[in-house]
Amino acid sequence: MKLEKKDRINLVKKVGMVLLFFTPFLIGQGYQMYQDRTFPLDFLLLEAIIGIYLSLNLYFGTKKMSEFCFQKRYWIGLLFLLYLVLGKYHSSSIYIYNDIIEPSFPILESAPIIGTPRFIRSDEFLVDTPAILNQTFQNYQIINSALMAQDKTVLMFPQLPTYNISVLSNPRLLGFFLLDVERAYSLYWFLPYFIAFFGILELFLILTEKKKLLSLAGTCLILFAPGMQWWNSPSFMAYGSWAIVLLNHFFEKEKKSKKLLISLLFGWVGSMYIMILYPAWQLTYGYLFLGLVIYILYKNKEKLRVKDLIYLIPVFVTLLAIVVPAILTSTTTIERMMSTVYPGARSASGGNGWPMYFYYISSLFYGRAKIGNPCEFSAYFSFFPIPLIMAIYYIIKNKKEKKYDIFLIIMVILIFLMGIWNFIELPLLSKITLLSMSTPERSIMTVEVIFTILTIYILSHYENKKTDKKRRWISIGLSMLLILFSIFVVNHSLAGYLTSNQTCFATLLFTLFFIFILENNYKTNRYFAFLSIGVSLYIVMSVHPLSKGLNVIFEKPIGKEIQKIVEKDKKAKWMSVDAPIHVQSYILANGARVINSTNYYPNFELWEKFDAEKAHEEVYNRYAHVMISITEEETSFHLLAPDSFQIRVNKNQVCSFEATYIVSEKNLEEYNNKNIQFEKIYGKDNLMIFQTNCGK
Question: In this structure, is the dihedral angle defined by the CA atoms of residues 646, 92, 145 and 321, taken in order, positive or negative?
């Protein structure tokens, strides 16, 4: 029986849908086999979502599906977030504890579904996660007695979930009051990325005048960039972007009630930005957002009204109501941190940062090919220096035509303000602009974000209607010269990192990017967008793992034992001795009061027991990870890194810590004497728990 043309097309679509549905499954299974892993149901569910999406694209057509997804983007995003939270997924590197804490008792259900845990993300799995999990044992009180084993306010440095209005400045924490700890932790992980995704997307829709594909490409280039992923820092762009979007909406609304609501939301978002509490990036991103505020005000200059200044009142009332309680309650913490050697006394005058402008080339490979510190060497896809060259060209061209593009002018000024500081030392400029509070390595990443924004803006506003052969050959030639120079800089700065295969791939990829940007027509802009989205998705899948649940923390035998002891002896102090740095954080995560958990500021009262003359104050007067070991020799302090030191304490001074329980890899009973007694009360694998006679 011969089929009609329409029936043949429908049959092809249906067969294609089936093939597309199973393609992710087959690819995923091959990847899992390559990684020598089992094939979990969670992986299958993720692939089913991808398969369904691809199948629907084939059946309804890419254009219709894209339009549908754009119109329903918030609902789709909410459903995806709900799926992740209900499934208890997260991207933490806490599975590292599995091989360090009692490796003979593996917690396989916590193994990453996709990706690999990253040791370099120590700020996350050694500091943030243990502190947050410990707070769940403290019933979310403002005073946490477990961190550093002393009463400490946790509204700032660190900011943990508490029954206080200031928690509104960090919405990722709100789930801990509504959900079980595993699902709350999932929301804690992914909510900032969802806020950032939609905030950056809405910002680009404003800047591009609603060019959807380019806006999506720009969003992916920023949010999924190596610089964002390795530092796990979406909050700056999340809250800053929404502040600009709200400001733009303010001028679009006429009703007073809507303007009032926007003002309240603006104050709320402002409190979120302030409470990120990382000046090195708050300041530099602040310049970016100040520039965007100026642009929005200029763009809406016809709508500026003196009477609208009254709406600043709800902005400041909201902001102060949320932020002030945290500041007033944390004055001691702030004072101590500001007076530290690190990071309080850190100051920079610029210089030596310029090679990092080209690290977007090497950043592509950090997820698969190891490098010393992928965080410090990561970058955003800035396509330096092409966007700056093009911006200056269009500024000059506009001036000749008696036109002014205020956005280009503002962005170029910002690039020179913060960019030149990365090439040469400028002590005076550093102090005047407060850039001394940052570093070239940090500020350059903000400049790279500006480059990315500039790229999308130029492609959307200066698209060429025609492309002649002469322009194409100029684009190809200039692109090849720029990529060769870029590869040279990277190879000189990161000698030996790029292999020949990586060099060839990077050369091809970024030559294409450069050509698309320089040609800048409708067709090449679409190619640029699709390539940007593809590369960005590759990065986001190659950096963080995707795991499920917190069993690796709570279900290890020693974890259960710590919880049992803490339940009976809540006020007892703990510490780890002669053990990996991860151990004190693991103890803290299971609810104990840990003396040498991360010291957010120096515990002078404790350290002066061992250093009455303050001879080693330079060593311990800092934010620090603290390693403790017991010795037969005199007590001594040793600086290991800017944020880490070790104290080798004489066995007869151990009781000065007032620790009732000590976790160690070493059998401490060999140190027993009349001054100190260690009684082993637990030991199943590589770690033992000892009870001391201190305080008895």
Answer: positive
Residue range 166-199, pLDDT digits in tens: 999 999 999 999 999 999 999 999 999 999 999 9
Q: What's the gap between Cα 458 and its chain centre?
A: 27
Of 535, 526, 537, 536, the C-alpha closest to 50 is: 537
Number of neighbouring beta carbons within 10 Å of residue 550: 22
What amino acid is encoded at 624 in this protein?
Answer: A
Q: What average pLDDT score do residues 547-574 get?
A: 96
Helix (H, G, I), strand (E, B) or coil at 610: coil
Question: SS in 3 state form for 389-415?
Answer: HHHHHHHHHHHHCCCCCHHHHHHHHHH
Q: How far apart are CA 636 and CA 648, in angstroms?
A: 5
Q: What is the 3-state secondary structure (H, E, C) of 96-108?
A: HHHHHCCCCCCCH
Q: Are the C-beta atoms of residues 626 and 663 closer than 8 Å to each other? A: no
Burial-class residue 76 by CB neighbours within 10 Å (0-12, 13-18, 19+): middle
For residue range 249-266, what is the model confidence (pLDDT) as tens digits?
999 998 999 999 999 999
Report which of 636, 635, 600 is spatially closest to residue 621, judged by C-alpha positions.
600
Q: What is the DSSP letter of 571?
A: T
Question: Residue 438 half-sphere exposure, CB side, CA atoms within 13 Å?
Answer: 30
Task: Enter the tokens of residue 340.
Answer: 């530290």
Which residue, among 391, 417, 419, has the nearest Cα to 406 in the 3D structure? 391
Q: pLDDT by residue (tens digit) across 353-372?
A: 788 899 999 999 999 898 98
The CA distances from residue 694 to 245, 273, 285, 660, in Å, are 58, 45, 49, 6
C-alpha–C-alpha distance, residues 216 and 223, integer Å = 10
581, two tokens: 């740095």
DSSP class of residue 594 equals E
Burial 399-436 (b: 16+ CB within 10 A, else e): eeeeeebebbbbbbebbebbbebbeeebeebbeebebb
Per-residue confidence band for 576, with pLDDT thresholds at 50, 70 and 90? very high
Q: Output the DSSP codes for 69-90.
A: HHHTHHHHHHHHHHHHHHTTEE
Beta strands 688-692 and 678-683: pairing type?
A: antiparallel
Under DSSP, is residue 352 helix (H, G, I), strand (E, B) or coil?
coil
Quickly list DSSP for 138-206: TTT-SEESSBTTS-EE-SSSS----SSGGGGG-GGGGGGGTS-HHHHHHHHHHHHHHHHHHHHHHHHHH
In whole angstroms, what is the distance from residue 539 CA to residue 602 CA? 38
Name residue, tokens 């990277």.
Answer: 490
Q: Are 351 and 423 a contacting pair, CB within 8 Å?
A: yes
Q: Which two tokens stand for residue 312?
A: 């600043």
Amino acid at 430: S
Of 218, 81, 281, nearest to 532 (Cα)? 218
Cβ-count burial of 74 within 10 angstroms (0-12 exposed, 13-18 middle, 19+ buried)? exposed
Q: What is the DSSP letter of 370?
A: -
Instruction: For the chain, give the number of residues.
Output: 696
| First-residue to last-residue Cα distance in the chain | 94
Residues in Cβ contact with 634 at an 8 Å cutoff, skipping those fewer than 6 apart: 650
CA dist 482 and 98 (Å) reads 45
Which H or E element spans position 233?
none
CA distance 28 to 469: 43
Rounded Cα–Cα distance for residues 233 and 517 (Å): 27
